[in-house]
Amino acid sequence: MNPSPRVTIGMPVCNGQDTLEDAINAILAQTFVDFELIISDCASTDRTEVICQSYAARDPRIRYVRNPVPMGAAGSYNRLVDLARGEYFKWVAHDDLIEPDYLEQCVAALDSDPGIVLAYARSQWIDARGHVVQPDEDRCPLMDARPSTRFAAFLRTPGLCNPAFGLVRLDALRRTARIAPYRASGQALLGHLALLGKFYEVPAFLFYRRMRGTPSGGAGAIGREAPWIETSSRRVGLSQVPRWRWVLAYHRQIFQTPMSPLDRARCLYTVARHLVFSRRWWRVEWAALKQAVGVASDDQAYKAV
């Protein structure tokens, strides 16, 4: 095995026996072969361990790491970043699929421009049987050289964090807070990466995201089961209310990222305009908060928090 593969693929998994083999096979079928696959097993109780050890015995590019106690999604995802050795890094969920040329096209994009920190492909939803249901496009190419312009474009683009499953420069990813223990924390991660560099969208449907009732383990899907997100929280339901955490994360990122004073001011203005001053945005967040803590009135919600 190459001691320094160009790409590290990190796969967190928790009881993923039903779809795990399909996900691994899709990775092993890549036309770009200079990669390592690290599988982080979060205390699975099904056949996940047997499946992973079988693949690791057959292919030296696969490393299997088992966590004997639950770590939650954030711990599982972030541990993979710590273990990575590649120049580029990609998270992959245990029930999602990628086309054989996914890595090849994303590596080519990153190699072509050092200003690009993230390359990702267009995506489609698939059902439990792997059949395409509908497109699920973030359409978030951010190729402007100015950080404030990229950041403003990012906040204007609604999406489900699909670019978080793209191929990212590992050194850039390690400058971020990575995945945090709350739903849709991938949105805050992508905001920081948008400040650090450009996003390139491969103009082809190469990523298939599973639509199912159990969590895929993806950065954009870690809210499907709250305990998988935040195992230590006394109020696990609060992890379903991410927007106020995004505001705090964006402000911290803006001041941590090197940029001109003018760009920093523009970024702060963008956060205020798109997040803080949006009454509808906060009404949605407040309604989610009341639902999370199981109360009906505003007064009860204040006391619960």
Could you explain how this protein is built, in words?
With 305 residues, this protein is α/β, with parallel strands linked by helices. The protein folds into two domains: 7-225, Spore Coat Polysaccharide Biosynthesis Protein SpsA, Chain A, CATH 3.90.550; 243-304. 40% of the residues lie in helices and 19% in strands. The protein has twelve helices and nine strands. It has helices at 20-28, 48-58, 72-83, 102-112, 147-155, 170-173, 186-196, 226-229, 243-256, 261-276, 279-293, 298-304, and strands at 7-13, 35-42, 62-67, 88-91, 97-98, 116-126, 132-135, 167-169, 198-210. Strands 1, 2, 3, 4, 5, 6, 7, 8 and 9 form a nine-stranded mixed β-sheet that branches. Helix 5 (147-155) packs antiparallel against helix 7 and helix 9 runs antiparallel to helix 10 (261-276). It is globular. Mean pLDDT is 84; it is low at 214-228, 231-239 and 295-305.
Question: What is the strand and helix layout of this fold?
Answer:
Layout: E1 7-13, H1 20-28, E2 35-42, H2 48-58, E3 62-67, H3 72-83, E4 88-91, E5 97-98, H4 102-112, E6 116-126, E7 132-135, H5 147-155, E8 167-169, H6 170-173, H7 186-196, E9 198-210, H8 226-229, H9 243-256, H10 261-276, H11 279-293, H12 298-304
Parallel strand pairs: 1-2, 1-4, 2-3, 6-9
Antiparallel strand pairs: 4-8, 5-9, 6-7, 6-8
Helix pairs in contact: 5-7, 5-10, 7-9, 9-10
